[in-house]
Amino acid sequence: MKLQVIGDPVLHSKSPVLHGAMLAALGLDVPYTAHVVRRGELPDYLAWAQKNGVTGFNATMPHKEDLIPLLDGIDPSAQAIGAVNTVCLRDGKWVGFNTDGAGAVTALGEGLGFDPAGLTVTLLGAGGAAKAVALALVEAGAERVFVCNRTPERAAALCALDGLGRLIPAAFDPDTLARRTAQSRLLVNCTNLGMAGCPGQFEEFSFLDALPPDAGVFDLIYHPAETELLAQARRRGLSTLNGLPMLVNQAVLALEHFLNRPLNRRAMAEAATAALHQI
Fold first, then answer.
1. Pick the catalytic residue: 14, 64, 93, 131?
2. In angstroms, rounded to a whole number, what is the distance separating the alpha carbons of residues 276 and 18?
3. Which of 43, 37, 46 is closest to 6 using CA atoms?
4. Which is the CATH superfamily of the domain at 101-242?
5. Which of 34, 95, 182, 244 has the fewest CB atoms within 10 Å, measured from its CB?
6. Burial class, 266, CB count within 10 angstroms (exposed 0-12 / middle 13-18 / buried 19+)
7. 90-137: per-residue pLDDT in tens?
8. Is 64 part of the annotated catalytic residue set?
9. Each residue of 232-246: pLDDT tens digit?
10. Global pTM?
11. What is the pLDDT of residue 202?
12. Predicted local distance difference test score (pLDDT) of residue 47
């Protein structure tokens, strides 16, 4: 049994630390490593992984959506999202799951004290992680989620996944962002803007000024630990949360899929968090 996390970039990933700590806590000697897989290399990777004893892997950018047509089976919730972050080899077949959404909602509760029920949220991005988080938020009772994306068609496609009209597409320009954040109590960044090793940064942060003083800003990025978005939000007195708590919680759920059995989630999260504090 071997486990991996794949992506590009991925060598910064803390997933090996998290899963290593949880596996050790379970008394299992199972290797978990980071493996660079570039866009377009997924078919070769899947063949290589199966031949080399990889029984499961986590996927990060840019593979969460590209994996879908290459897998033998998809969990219904992941199929609805159109993205996977956890893939397991079951009876010789690759099966995909998505633990991002549930991990994000748990992180919001534990890290910011936010219950999505009744909230209006501005969400940035329309990729795989954005889909998972947006759908999880509405499932948890969010009243409205403004999905802001530079490509309007992608935002509209994401919003079409919710038939009740709680997902609302929006543009990504400063004026639109300011109008939407003024109506929101939570801002969630699901883009890679500000991620270490990735090009691109927010052009400006005036949209943060429109958020109410009791609002929270949740950035799914955890490397660096404080993105410029979070730094700017903190300077404005807003509550902030980076992506580490989500990473921990989604990792616990992913490990349940890898081992194909339920775990003591609180104990696993504590083991993973303790390992993070030691690095």
1. 64
2. 7
3. 37
4. NAD(P)-binding Rossmann-like Domain (3.40.50.720)
5. 182
6. exposed
7. 999 999 999 999 999 999 999 999 999 999 999 999 988 899 999 999
8. yes
9. 999 999 999 999 999
10. 0.86
11. 92
12. 97
